[in-house]
# Entry
Amino acid sequence: MKLSLNINNRPGTVDVDGDIPLLWVIRDVLDLKGTKFGCGKAACGACTILVNGEAVRSCSYPAKMAEGKQITTIEGLGTTKNPHPVQQAWIEEIVPQCGYCQPGFMMATAALLNKHPNPSDDDIDQNIVNVCRCGTYYRMRKAIKKAAQIQADSTIQS
Amino acid sequence: MAKVSRRKFIVRSLIGGAGVLVGATYLARNPLRRQLYDLLDDPSMLAYSGDTSQPFMWFEVTRANQVILHSPKVEMGQGTFTGLVQIACDELELDISQMQIVHATSATGNIDGLSTGGSTSVAGLWQPLRELSATLREMLKAEGAKKLDVAVDQVRASAGTIIGPSGSLTYGEVVEGVTEWEVPEAPPLKDLKDYKFIGKPVSRVDLVDKVMGTPMFGMDAQMPDMLYGSVVRPSKIGAKFKGADVSKAAGMPGVVKVVQEDDFVGVVATSMTEAENAKKAIVAEWETDREWNTKDIEDMLLVGKGEAMVIQKEGDAEGELADENGSQVLRSEYKSPIGAHAQIEPNGAVAYVEADKATVMISTQVVSITRSEVAKRLGMEATQVNIVPTYLGGGFGRRLHTPNAVQAAVLSKAVGKPVKCFFSRQEEFQNDTFRPPTHHVMKGKLDANGKITAIEHQFSSGDVMFGSALLPPVVGTILGADGGAIRGGSFHYRNIPSFRAVSWRVQLPFSTSWWRSLGLLANTFAIESFMDELAELTGKDPVAFRLDHIIDDEAGMRLKQVIETARAKSGYQNTAADDRAMGFACSTDAGTPCAHVAEVSVTDGAIRVHKVTCVMDPGFAVNPDQVKAQCEGSIIMGISASLFERMYVEKSELKPIIYGPYRMALMRDAPREIDVEIINGTGVPGAVGEPPLGPIAAAIANAAYRITGKRVRELPMSVV
# Structure
């Protein structure tokens, strides 16, 4: 079926089986490889994207459900020249090791900051439930708090 | 200044003088082999078998003043690429941004015969890479001086430029048009204190790409006109493939071809989802000879049931500890479970097999083994197969086995197009090369002064090193003991009259192998928990008790220093306060001593780790920030394995098959504080990536005991 999708503020149409996971449309049809496959069962969070600003695990989200919604992937979060506060904080804290799970964590963090601009440790523990095998959680927690700070500072300036 | 060892350098001008390739051959022994020698104490028994005539590492200098380092080691998160760039830039007089590092493909000459693993990459390349970089620097200076028409002592190299008294040339300009190079003998290496990048917390070279989601992993690889494959994999232990009914799958949407081989069946389709769906429609027939359950595995694994090998012996511990019923002998048993790698990027590959060559893009820790396995299956020469390593979405030892490369290649050959083929998560969990379960019997005896007179560690493990493609079978015969299973199994407490360590080998019915730090985590759990048990009998402080039993040789002094530093830094106390308690443990792995102090609480039977103080002496930290990152990561991975992770066997199936049920540490389980101190004890880089995993389980168990009064002797820990 033809699906009208708005991914990273770019509207477009794809012709796919509407029941296939949105993850594969993003990765293999639209060639946005930043969203990762980890488990296919919404259990690890490597495929986390934003749907209307909320964190969604795209490996278990039928593509047809994305119609009419604002989809954001890591590629749409920020750029090297203009990184999102979460990406900026991730760079400053040197969070990634292997890096594979990191886009999912950054998207989950962006969604968290949408809900809780100044998240407490409990907010972080309850909302950031992706899996990182390299064990970067310690730096991630620091980066999440720093991202909140960067976001708050930029809001004041603008 | 340090002297350069004998090594052959190879120089090739790029076509048309568009640059230069400079490489070094590996005359030094591979560090992994060196470890084998150390185990054997007889280096003459094994000869280095790699091809020493080809460069294992080289630079490419282009006219655009780009210097590209082709790395024989892969980047799997451990920060090796950053460390190598720091080392190279310092000797080559480049800014970090002027160097690019890439994985060497097997076609362009990577001949690293073994692997990326064993915490050896930066340590092993430290000397040869500095030599190679210094050699190229001197070549550029000599050629630059010639072009500037001044004597070589009139020029200096700085930030990618050869600077003379009245003019300068970029390295790119120096190499242009040069076809004959003179290779200097023994160029000088800088002193440690003169390095700008080495020893400094330089930011990761792959950081921005990883934060931006840039495609770089095996899973992201693609080739033009690529199809998608899926292979049926067994869910049961010992299952042998007999054949398959593919009639239903062949007609499924998107299916291009069903591929039946003697040893597996797979399908190729136009998308990943179609391939997965078609695979589910294949009815494969498997033959198994018996049913397995966890109990069977545990029974096989008891100390005394496998083949024994004494790996450490001093005095007569056996005799001293023979009377187990005597009141003086303390005896405790410990256990650890089957562990999964659970790296987030599943295994897979993109392969394209053509008439006379094959290309495989893959996350692998064993480039040359992957190459020879693919070549063998395709009936090609190894030189016809190009392995293109990608960044690894986690390694941890999982990618020391790459049958997935062969499967992708077979599927590609069957359809004549590139094929991408990956494991599902369930297949990952059921076809892993697991961390073997272990069983430990500790015995010890004290004298009236609270000193240990005899101690013994007998431990049983599934294979780690044995059975691996990394080692020829003959090595097992020579070594006797499994070099992986015994990591951390010997005593570093040698100020004891009699001590003995015995490794029992058990061949389990499923594949077990390398898992980050190998036997270190379980063995240290047993030894360091037992040290606290003995210390308690003496009434001494556990840290002081440990220090009493370490001899004052170089290794002992380094261990003492990390112990004392960790005690001071953490404010270690041997008593519980405010519902929290501290636990201490230490180990020396691959020459790197490390001590942890874990601060924990116990609520409703759940242990929570609030803070870990870690002190480690890797010899010399090329990048202190990334060494710290390895400590933090090891601590969290170790907490995960200590408190949560466990695979079990039910009706021959390894379970769980998904994250969640395979419980791993999440954000909420990670300590809020991790305080790492790095000591540069020798000035020479040593192992980093695995040693800090060693002491964590015992440090937690020792802390929990202070609160509950119950000794936990089994992983994952339960205090209920």
